[in-house]
Design a protein that fits this description.
This protein is mainly α. Helix content is about 70%, strand content about 0%.
Length: about 190
C-alpha cells in the first residue's frame, strides 16, 4: 500500500527545462481564463489549481525541504482557494456552461443553493495565514521585531534599491516604524476574531 506522499512522488512534477516551465505557465493562464469565463468551470478550476501547484512548487523548490516544511503560505492560499471554488456549489451559476451546455440536459437551471461554507472557509484560511504569520514572528523573537528596527532596516535597504527618498525618510523615523510593527502584530492577531 502506497502512502499519499509515495503516490505523489510517482507523478513527475519537476520541470527540467525552460520550455516545460513556459508551457505550464501558458496552460495555467489558459485554464484561469476558461474558469473566469465559466467554460467547463469545475474542470478548468481543478486544472488551474493543479498547474498553479506545479508552477509554484517548482519556483519555490529551492526553499522547500521536507525537514522544515517551509513553503510560502501566501502561495498556498491561492491553491486552496482554487480548490474550494472547484467544489463549491453554484460555481457555474454565471457561466457559459449554464447557458449553453446545461440547457440541453435535464439540469434544473432554477436550482440555487444558498450555502455560505465556501466563503467562510476562504475567510478562515485568510485568518489562518495572518495568525500563522503572527505566531512565526512571536516564535522568532517578537520583542526584537516590535522595536521597529527590522522594519527600519527593510525600508532603508528597499529605499536604496528603489532610489526612493520616501522610504529612506521612513527608515529614519524610529517611532513610526515602532508604531507600524506594533499595529501589524495587532492586525495579525485580530484575524482570530
Amino acid at each position: 500500500v502506497l502512502s499519499a506522499i509515495d503516490a505523489l512522488k510517482l507523478i513527475p512534477l519537476e520541470l527540467k527545462t525552460d520550455g516545460q516551465f513556459i508551457c505550464i505557465k501558458y496552460l495555467l493562464a489558459i485554464f484561469l481564463v476558461l474558469s473566469a469565463v465559466g467554460f467547463l468551470t469545475r474542470f478548468s478550476i481543478l486544472l488551474s489549481s493543479f498547474f498553479y501547484f506545479v508552477l509554484v512548487s517548482n519556483v519555490y523548490s529551492y526553499s522547500f525541504s521536507p525537514t522544515n516544511g517551509y513553503m510560502p503560505s501566501d502561495f498556498n492560499l491561492a491553491f486552496y482557494v482554487l480548490l474550494i471554488l472547484a467544489f463549491a456549489p453554484n460555481i457555474s451559476l454565471f457561466s457559459v456552461d449554464r447557458k449553453y451546455i446545461f440547457t440541453s440536459s435535464n439540469y434544473d437551471l432554477n436550482r440555487t443553493e444558498n450555502t455560505t461554507w465556501p466563503r467562510q472557509l476562504i475567510i478562515l484560511l485568510l485568518g489562518l495565514v495572518y495568525v500563522s504569520s503572527f505566531i512565526t514572528k512571536m516564535r522568532l523573537g517578537a520583542w526584537t521585531f516590535l522595536d521597529g528596527h527590522n522594519l527600519s532596516i527593510y525600508f532603508g535597504e528597499y529605499g536604496i534599491y528603489r532610489r526612493s527618498e520616501n522610504l529612506l525618510w521612513l527608515s529614519n523615523q524610529a517611532n513610526l516604524c515602532h508604531f507600524l510593527t506594533v499595529s501589524t502584530m495587532l492586525f495579525e492577531l485580530s484575524a482570530i476574531v
